[in-house]
Amino acid sequence: MAIRVTKKCFLLSTLGVLVVAAALTVTLVLVLRDDEEISETYRFAASSIEVRLEEQPDHRYVLSIRRGDDRVQRITFDHDFTDDSDIETFPKGMRLYGNGHSVEIREVEDSAGFAYLSISRTLRKGQIGSDVLHLHDTFGAEQTPLHWYGGPELMEQYYPIEKLRFDDYPYITKELHSAAIIERYWLSTAGVFFYVEKEVPLFIDQNDQVLRFTAKKELPYYTYDDEFVFNYRIGVAADAREAHQKAVERVLNQPVDIPDERMVRQPIWSTWVRYRRPISQQTVLDFAREINAYGFKNAQLDIDDLWEVCYGSLTFNTITFPNVTEMTETLREMGFRVTLWVHPFINKNCDPWYTEALSKGYLVKSHNETIGYNTKWWNSGENEASYINFNNPDAVEWYRRRLRELQELGIDNFKFDAGETSWAPADPDIEGTTALLPSSQTVNFVRMCAAFGGMIEVRTGWGTQDLPVFVRMLDFDTRWGWNNGLLSLIPTLLQMNLNGYPFVLPDMIGGNVYGDDILTKELFIRWLEASVFMPSIQFSKTPWDIDEESITISKKFAQLHETYSDYIIQRMRLAVSHGTPVNPPIWWLDPTDKIAQTIYDEYLLGEDIVVAPVLAEFATTRDIYLPKGTWRDGNTNRVHEGGRWIYNYTAPMDTLPYFVSATFQLN
């Protein structure tokens, strides 16, 4: 039901009230205003949600969303609709138009406790749509400030995400800033979520007050059609947890199965940090023997960069790997499965494979002839590589066939690297729905990878939450702080879970030791502790590279992870059946807990374990906030009531603070 309030349309409105009242026996109250501004209110009958569209003195419009007496969100349509703008109503919503823009606000769903609406418009090339979300509104009788979750994966992963800053930021998967998971989803503590449709050429700006959605036909999006859409959806529920569950059901999806269980139970071992490039058959075998000799278990051993003849050949170098079949058989006898690092690039000096791909149209080409097929990645110079076109089914089959040939040598599966759209030449001239470019390249790459089964890992995604595979965090640096260091680990875990990716593979213990970074014993141990209750553990630098105590502590925490692996798998199965995060934020247990809403250095495993690792250098104590519930200390067995702080919890280097629900029984 809609109610109009306007002075300039008084006679028409009066007539409208009489007609509606006679036909529907609905009483509408008309209020005269002292100015020429107009407004309209639409009420969701079942959910008691109300949206009010109101003209501002500058002829912009503000949409206010109210739940009962509480305003839970404001959106400003940042366009001068001019003084001849108007609002018309229809049975399921209302339409604002003026100065070349028409915005439709439509009810999508209305049920007890949940309202779902869409904001949509069609724009022509040259037009810009820009809507502003007010981040720091307050709501409720106590005027509680809003906090926000979701948004992009980033190198400096602040949490809650209202702390992030963006300036005209194209919202596509990219290697820059580690933006590999970049779902168009934002969730507030007021129980409101926003989801911007995939077809929108979206840019965002964010400061300490607002998040701006801008739709415009500019690169890196496809720019050769005349019209485009600016559509998004808004869901309003009782609280953030309920809103997120509604979003999973409607826009985020949930995985169809769980990934490989052995990758959950036992550590993954990678050659990357310990050996860098190139790698050799003898080095791989020596590494495996060391792992066994020191008494560690394994899920698999990953052969990383550089095993190929040249980058993109997908062919073993027979000098460094003289007998791959013999190597894989030996590793299997030692109890190892073997995975292989692969990527979507071909360097130009990698013939005959490059020439074949180029001649058959398997590479991404730019509309810009100056760019052509040229790109650059971390293992090439400028314009010395090309990117495989995974939007081309023939190129996908060519790539897939060559991977299967590697499996015939005894390779069990693959670690798929890259896949973000920023690696391809800008302005790609490739197949696919134009409105989904360039990010459809990420989708098709990841879906090709997932066809190899649950033992793989990828590191990017866009609307691919349904895939039953591990998604790895991008490379972390070997640091303590927010700058892509240990302090960013838990916020990244939470960001991925709340974007619908619950099968998180944390980066290698201790980070990647790039540049001048130094991996200390303390940082290695604290990193391992922080990862214990995440879905998987991945080593490259080894405990025996440090000292005997590190070996003892590492075995202790690898065993602790294995002890709880059945529960991790149980929570993974719940992610499949119910769409719940495997590692939620601690506010998940009480979405109204104002303290829990801002905690960035703790996380849950399911709903029964609170994990509060020490993340500061030289620290041997920390303050811990326990959420709602009764909790048993995993180290001392002491029982604590939740909803309060434990101050100065003692945690020397070999101690991980964690708490188990008093009612929890480990099977």
TrEMBL record:
Keywords: Glycosidase, Hydrolase, Signal. GO terms for molecular function: hydrolase activity, hydrolyzing O-glycosyl compounds. Belongs to the glycosyl hydrolase 31 family. Residues 271-568 form the Glycoside hydrolase family 31 TIM barrel domain. PANTHER family: GLYCOSIDASE FAMILY 31 (PTHR43053), MYOGENESIS-REGULATING GLYCOSIDASE (PTHR43053:SF4). GO terms for biological process: carbohydrate metabolic process. InterPro entries: Alpha-glycosidase_related, GH, Glyco_hydro_31_C, Glyco_hydro_31_TIM, Glyco_hydro_b. This is Glycoside hydrolase family 31 N-terminal domain-containing protein. Residues 579-661 form the Glycosyl hydrolase family 31 C-terminal domain. SUPFAM superfamilies: (Trans)glycosidases (SSF51445), Glycosyl hydrolase domain (SSF51011). The lineage of its organism: Eukaryota, Metazoa, Ecdysozoa, Arthropoda, Hexapoda.
